[in-house]
Automatic annotation (TrEMBL), chain A:
Belongs to the binding-protein-dependent transport system permease family. The lineage of its organism: Bacteria, Bacillati, Actinomycetota, Actinomycetes, Micromonosporales. Residues 88-279 form the ABC transmembrane type-1 domain. It holds the Pfam family OppC_N. It is found in: Cell membrane. This is Peptide ABC transporter permease. It is a multi-pass membrane protein. InterPro entries: BP-dependent_transpt_permease (IPR050366), MetI-like (IPR000515), MetI-like_sf (IPR035906), OppC_N (IPR025966). Keywords: Cell membrane, Membrane, Transmembrane, Transmembrane helix, Transport. The chain crosses the membrane at residues 27-45, 92-117, 137-161, 201-222, 259-279. Gene3D superfamilies: MetI-like (1.10.3720.10). It comes from the Bacteria.
TrEMBL record, chain B:
Residues 25-274 form the ABC transporter domain. This is Dipeptide/oligopeptide/nickel ABC transporter ATP-binding protein. CDD domains: ABC_NikE_OppD_transporters (cd03257). Gene3D superfamilies: P-loop containing nucleotide triphosphate hydrolases (3.40.50.300). It comes from Asanoa siamensis.
Length: 292, 345
């Protein structure tokens, strides 16, 4: 209503110092560039690949890398490079979407638990314990079995299993802020829990949460690959890095057609590694004490 | 400047001082007990942080609430502004019982009663600009003052002696005294009738303390504010407060006018407290009363008079019978069976 008059200039000293610390992390900077390229490649998958990822060409099935197919073709003659790029869309999308669910649910529940305390806190935190103590893969396999495998179920399931990490961090931030005098001052003027969350807690929790979110993206990408590999995630003909690896389940393929599994395997490994490096860099950037 | 602040249209103008008989705030037998759990099986105990405190504040008056650390001053202050729910007792504001008011009533109350905190570093969010901090009370309550929020905030900054141009600066760019002024401006944003000042100058340098105290006095005169001034520094309280209430271990031990308390205190504890004020004109410990031992735990306070374990006049009666607050020869109310008489040395 009146927010225009108090628009604060953002990004003064603390943010700039964080950027400076992040840049001291060569692995994180390289990873950031790499992920940027992966994202761009996924966005521009069609012009980059020049092939339809689902076009079957039985005549040139199982052919090795060549001028026409840079990374070769699979058992039905589909272009591997094209499938790899389109799979990037799904894998990154699933990773980001499920991390977003985890962060939103975790931030909401964590700040509510911290602000209200008492039995609400107990309930939320026991719920977090329950989610953390279940073997997530097994549960997701069962859920996918019951609801039928789909990208949406997978995103929701992965997200729901990752919220406790974020929830605990936000709760910790909330508990330490709750007794701060500036929060008491806001309460004394009539600010309710929602106001406190919006103006004080979420901005303060953002740095640690962004670290957790990055790591959650990496985990989700790996988990998506696992599930799709098992046939419970992304369903063919849509390509994901996980279900591209499914093609490489036989020893003969592994031995004689390495282009089928090397490229998606490397894509998953490098992406997860890079996202993790970015997370490490972020952690050092937002919390100067943890830097070596 | 301040005239326009006080009498802007659309808001209730500040009423002139009422006849002195009608108090603004009345506190009766206020208690706050915190349950504590210890051990595996959760044997619960009660910390009697505030245990039956009564006082009243007239419009435009300043009541000093003094006592050592842990005597329940801050808890009392936080109950007044309803940051803590009282265990029992009654708080009356302008004739209305506000002890457990909720919703709209509480909202209105929060506009009339504000708080200033002790630590000028912890009481301002380091991520927010000064403009945002001072505008917060207006925005929380959806108030859009004539001329806009920004204008009002700049008026407030000027009122507390800060440069209105510093609207976009962050708290870390200010000194302790300036930060405390920001806190004062925030408390004034809703035009309260009474401000609970919880040790507002304890964290400041002595020279800055005087500036902030003088600011509070000016504001009091200009805006007809009443204060509940919580402090442990008796010199500051003497300078600022017309009436003084002395607390010990969650209880009120003496309430009276400044002269009564400072010149002819009736309660031994008040006397001991006053004699502990360092006075550079009288170096040495001639008239000093040295209290033995520590303050007992509020988990298990002494029977009868709570001060008896450290009192040099304590007798059997003090252990068995709790002294009520009664008028003593000095004219003040004090809770003591064997009150002191005469002026302080």
């Amino acid at each position: 209503m009146t927010s225009t008059t108090v628009a604060a200039p953002v990004g003064r000293s603390p943010a700039r110092a964080a950027v400076r610390r992040f840049r001291k992390h060569p692995a994180a900077v390289v990873s950031l560039v790499f992920i940027g390229l992966v994202v761009l490649a996924a966005i521009f998958a069609r012009p980059l690949s020049g092939h339809d990822p689902n076009a079957i060409d039985l005549l040139s099935a199982r052919s090795g890398p060549s001028g026409a197919h840079l990374l070769g073709t699979d058992s039905t003659g589909r272009d591997v490079l094209s499938r790899l790029l389109f799979a990037g869309r799904i894998s990154l999308g699933v990773g980001i979407a499920s991390a977003a669910i985890a962060v939103v649910v975790g931030t909401l529940l964590g700040s509510i638990a911290g602000l209200l305390g008492g039995w609400v806190d107990g309930l939320v935190m026991r719920l977090a314990d329950v989610f953390m103590s279940f073997p997530s893969l097994v549960v997701i396999v069962v859920v996918a079995g019951i609801l039928g495998p789909s990208v949406l179920t997978m995103v929701i399931a992965i997200g729901l299993f990752q919220w406790p990490v974020c929830g605990r961090i936000v709760r910790g931030v909330t508990l330490s802020l709750r007794e701060q005098e500036f929060v008491l001052a806001a309460r004394a003027t009539g600010a309710g829990p929602l106001w406190l969350m919006r103006k004080h807690i979420i901005p303060a929790a953002l740095p640690p949460v962004s670290v957790v979110a990055t790591l959650a993206v990496a985990q989700a990408i790996a988990l998506e690959a696992t599930l799709s590999f098992l046939g419970l995630g992304v369903q063919p003909p849509a390509a994901s890095w996980g279900n591209m690896l499914t093609d490489a389940q036989s020893l003969t393929v592994i031995r004689s057609e390495p282009w089928l599994w090397l490229s998606p395997g490397i894509a998953v490994a490098l992406t997860v590694l890079a996202v993790n490096f970015i997370g490490d860099g972020l952690r050092d950037a937002v919390d100067p004490r943890s830097a070596s | 400047m301040t005239e326009t602040l006080v009498q802007e249209p659309g808001t209730e103008p500040v009423k002139p001082s009422r006849p002195s008989g009608e108090p603004l705030l009345v506190v009766e037998d206020l208690t706050k007990h915190f349950p504590v759990r210890s051990g595996m099986f959760g044997t619960t105990g009660l910390v009697r942080a505030v245990d039956g405190v009564s006082f009243s504040v007239k419009p435009g008056e300043t009541l000093g609430l003094v006592g050592e650390s842990g005597c329940g001053k801050t808890t009392t202050g936080r109950m007044l502004v309803r940051l803590l729910e009282p265990t029992s007792g009654k708080i009356t504001f302008e004739g209305k019982d506000i002890t457990h008011s909720k919703g709209g009533g509480l909202r209105q109350l929060r506009q009339d009663m504000q708080i200033i905190f002790q630590d000028p570093y912890a009481s301002l969010n380091p991520r927010h600009t000064v403009g945002r901090i001072v505008a917060m009370p207006l925005q929380v309550n959806g108030i859009n003052p004539p001329g806009g929020v920004k204008k009002r905030v700049q008026e407030l900054l000027e009122l507390v002696g800060l440069n209105p141009e510093h609207y976009n600066r962050y708290p870390h760019e200010f000194s302790g005294g300036q930060r405390q002024r920001i806190g004062v401006a925030r408390a004034l944003a809703l035009r309260p009738k009474i401000i609970v000042a919880d040790e507002p100058v304890s964290a400041l340098d002595v020279s800055i303390q005087a500036q902030v105290i003088n600011l509070l006095r000016e504001l009091q005169r200009e805006l007809d504010l009443a204060f509940v001034f919580i402090a442990h520094d008796l010199a500051v309280v003497r300078h600022f407060c017309q009436r003084i209430a002395v607390m010990y271990l969650g209880k009120m031990v003496e309430v009276g006018d400044r002269e009564q308390i400072y010149e002819r205190p009736a309660h031994p504890y008040t006397r001991a407290l006053l004699s502990a004020v360092p006075d550079v004109t009288k170096l040495g410990a001639s008239g000093r009363i040295r209290l033995e031992g520590d303050v007992p735990t509020p988990l298990n306070p002494p029977s009868g008079c709570r001060f008896r374990t450290r009192c040099w006049k304590a007798q059997e009666k003090c252990a068995t019978e709790e002294p009520p607050l009664t008028v003593k020869p000095n004219g003040a109310l004090a809770a003591c069976h064997f009150p002191e008489e005469g002026t302080i040395k």
